[in-house]
């Protein structure tokens, strides 16, 4: 592909990403993969260049652009060499018309940028949300004796964390294939550290997804006790068993839950868990470095629905905690309505429960919990609250 053809390809990809953001369609990474799957003529350097152009435009545009071309023109406004590639050549982008619309820059849609600022995320803190994330891995303590990596990696604040440049082919390493390391952001590793799971504990991972945190908890417990990994998504939960086998994590059980009837399936755990982890569904504002188009998908109405779900999950989770046990609330969001306000509202609804601040190697106190941010801590953004039962 010529450089001009790459620009036009990125515009076509962006059109698909914008439409998916408006309609709730596939995420950008899947769109990019599918687009190239039907265009075998594109080599690896073409794929890399088109992807970088498309994601550069996604990160640069705050509001949802009118079109992929408008988004790319925003980049061209700041880069004359890119503007020169709008040359009308074969398979290339049409020449720039001075009167055509250009997408606006910014961190996020205006309403969302205001919410972040009200939550203490503005300036360099907000700008860092759109940096490109590094690739973090967790050394699996269950197999750490066999650690042999082709690259040493940089130590992170997480005790078992290593950091590599974006795009490092971790999946091709024997250590990954054998479960010696797992890809996991250091912020997520620190959230697991806040759980404080000990050997012999009975732990419920209520929103386990594909089980990354369940694996970390099993390792922290040295394969002694029980981790019950639950989720309402059968496809995601089904990925955990092979991952656990690869990691040598033998204490993880899985349980598929029926939305709205979760406690029916968990009746045998009511009042019996030492710790319940609620890694709640959220806006994902702390993960924009990996999914920058996610900020185009969020609406005030969707955010309100998420906060309702979070409150319901917290109230449900507390019934599983035994007297003197702990409830850990985690969101990868930096919006206060999904973080400290949720924890404060829970404490107000349930007298006798109290906040037990989790002091971690990175981050700082934020309301009744702990906050990690990309700018301050070089992790994904997280809010973590540890709530102690009476």
Itemize the secondary structure elements and their pairings:
Blueprint: H1 3-23, H2 28-37, H3 44-60, H4 68-78, H5 80-83, H6 110-118, H7 124-127, E1 135-139, E2 154-155, E3 161-164, H8 174-177, E4 181-183, H9 186-195, E5 202-205, H10 212-220, E6 226-231, H11 234-237, H12 240-247, E7 252-256, H13 262-265, E8 273-279, H14 294-297, H15 300-318, E9 321-331, H16 340-349, E10 354-355, E11 364-366, E12 369-372, H17 374-377, E13 382-388
Parallel strand pairs: 5-6, 5-8, 6-7, 8-9
Antiparallel strand pairs: 1-3, 1-4, 2-3, 9-13, 10-13, 11-12, 12-13
Question: Descriptors for this entry?
Answer:
about 400 residues, 17 helices, alpha/beta
Proportion of residues in helical segments: 25-40%
Mean pLDDT: 96
Gross geometry: globular
For the termini, the CA-CA separation is 65 Å
Main sheet specs: 9 strands, mixed
- Write the element-wise H/E pattern from the N-terminal end onward: HHHHHHHEEEHEHEHEHHEHEHHEHEEEHE
Indicate the radius of gyration in whole angstroms. 22 Å
Strand content: 15-25%
Task: Supply the helix-strand structural class.
Answer: alpha/beta
β-strand number: 13
The CATH homologous superfamily of the largest domain is named: Vaccinia Virus protein VP39
CATH third-tier fold name of the largest domain: Rossmann fold
Name of the CATH first level of the largest domain: Alpha Beta
How many H/I helices?
Answer: 17
CATH architecture descriptor of the largest domain:
3-Layer(aba) Sandwich
Tally of separate domains = 3
Low-confidence stretches: none
